[in-house]
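re: ur question from yesterday

yeah so i grabbed the chain u mentioned. its 366 aa long if i counted rite. heres the sequnce exactly as i have it in my notes:
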Amino acid sequence: MKGVSLLLRALRDPDRLPAFSVNEWDLLMRQAAAANLTPSLLVLIEERELLPQVPARARALFEWVRPLAIRHRQAVHYEVACIQEALRPTGLPVLLLKGAAYTMANLCAGDGRLYNDIDILVPKNRLGEVESALMVHGWAGTHHDAYDQRYYREWMHELPPMEHVRRQSSIDVHHAILPETARVRPDPEKLRAAARPLADAPGLAVLAPQDMVLHSAVHLFSDGEFSHGLRDLFDIHRLLLQFGGQAGFWAGLAPRARSLELERPLFYALRYAVRLFGTPVPDTVLADAGSGRGSPGRALLALMDRLFLRGLAPAHPSCADAMTPLALSMLYVRGNWLRMPPLLLARHLFHKAFITPRVDAGQVQQ
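ran it thru and got these structure tokens back, copy pasting raw so excuse formatting
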């Protein structure tokens, strides 16, 4: 597992990068690419003015990555403006989530952050109106299978993903941050009520700082997909570094998690941010987050450490061991278990394992 510490060392302490050998740089760049963290690594290097000390081959790759990150940010600004225009007749503010929120709010977590879609949060009773407005402006659903339509519209916390017919840009329209069928369902009205408008972007809003951290935590630790796990934990690390200096942020974080029934995701987020990135979280906050329903218990925590520490590693062979495939499979099942009751989960997994492949094969043959 030597390779795991290489990327983590770079992200945790970029000042040590000039001491890396050429071979270490080669492996580091491969791991960063696998974790979708190459632009973020460049941001850390440029913040410390270390680029001249980077080996030539790695520096050449960074020089290619920089304009990619710039174009991505420009594209996000353009797509958000298009979404605003599409939703203007509804009178709803565009409440951005995750990556787009980090970018438009100029947060450090958005620097170098690459993502494939823009996520927004709207009231559930306005979903039809929002979907129609987006369709008029060129977005269309990407999931046409009858089962997928029912899966999203009845059980999930979002519409089926939509893609623009010309630009191929994607948007996910959420009405909550966890599925309707999940064991825990934070009240989305509380999130919308506390949302912060962006002063320099009328009509746009983002979640409040504590809610932004909690949403990132629940997205990472209640999901079953960990292909971008380290990137998402790095988001949490950067958010905590930035928001931690705001008055009242730390004191209110655990109480806000309890209000939204998100104690356990917060506990995991803080635990692994501290463990992997050395995030400076006050001891009192760690203790508060790990009390009551936040604590998984000693035996379960020992198991989750073994699973999460593998799931949060980059998807690169140097970061895996013999137990990694099993750990990822168990995390996938866990994520679905948290999202659905047992009978619905069994039906869903059966459909995805046996029926969906046959439907897809039939569509390809046509």
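noticed a couple things. The chain has one domain: 2-365. also The domain at 2-365 is CATH 3.30.460.40 (Beta Polymerase; domain 2).
anyway ttyl
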